[in-house]
Inverse folding.
């Protein structure tokens, strides 16, 4: 196992409603990516499955996991906890898999501190109107929740400059957006800091 090249951690953020889930589904169809399932204290939406979309857990359990340092990062979002369990991510990276974290901005910035070598990608909407229409069209949240999410979205979009790459999810162009993410990961892997080991034999 020791000479397996470590996988890359890919941190993806974007405002609620931008279509992260659908875009990432396309990215995950390429077999060298795996998805890290987060834990959350929010209630499941219709159709969401425990252990697939999230590990749906109680606040007590979440706080117990925090105290045992079992998260790489965690944050509160719209009144609920969300966090990335450490065990799965470490295992997959050590097996050479590229791991995708779909997390909000505060959590992404925590990852940047502890794993600065990760690749940070921000998915932006085409416009505010399109984002709002998508949130309303989803029909799964109340008006209050939607307004909360739009307010958070404004702040999140301001934070896009802290990421390595910004991709836009245009209406009807989900596959192109997924291709852009794969392309960003590939380009990043060719940076000298990631490639130097491959050429350094030349000097021996
Ligand atoms: P939702 O409730 O719509 O599934 O997710 C709300 C927000 O929480 C989204 O921006 C999503 O990316 C983020 N999120 C999901 N899992 C995690 C996680 O493990 N950590 C953090 N920090 N954010 C997460």
């Amino acid at each position: 196992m020791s000479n397996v090249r470590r996988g890359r951690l890919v941190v993806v953020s974007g405002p609620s409603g931008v279509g992260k889930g659908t875009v990432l589904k396309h990215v995950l169809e390429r077999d060298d990516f795996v998805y890290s399932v987060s834990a959350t204290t929010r209630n499941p939406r219709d159709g969401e499955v425990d252990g697939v979309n999230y590990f749906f857990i109680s606040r007590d359990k979440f706080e117990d996991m925090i105290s045992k340092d079992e998260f790489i990062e965690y944050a509160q979002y719209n009144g609920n906890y969300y966090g990335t369990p450490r065990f799965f991510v470490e295992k997959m990276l050590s097996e050479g898999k590229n791991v995708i974290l779909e997390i909000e901005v505060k959590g992404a910035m925590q990852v940047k501190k502890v794993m600065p070598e990760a690749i940070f990608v921000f998915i932006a909407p085409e416009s505010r109107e399109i984002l709002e229409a998508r949130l309303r069209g989803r029909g799964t949240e109340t008006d209050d929740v939607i307004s909360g999410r739009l307010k958070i979205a404004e702040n999140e979009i301001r934070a896009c400059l802290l990421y390595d790459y910004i991709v836009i999810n245009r209406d009807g162009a989900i596959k192109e957006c997924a291709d852009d993410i794969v392309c960003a990961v590939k380009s990043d892997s060719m940076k000298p800091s990631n490639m130097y080991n491959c050429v350094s034999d030349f000097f021996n």
Observations:
- The CA atoms of residues 7 and 98 lie 5 Å apart.
- The helical segments are 20-28, 59-67, 86-94, 105-114, 128-138, 143-158, 174-189, 192-199.
- Residues 16, 38, 42, 73-75, 77, 82-84, 102-104, 107 surround guanosine-5'-monophosphate (CB under 6 Å).
- The radius of gyration is 18 Å.
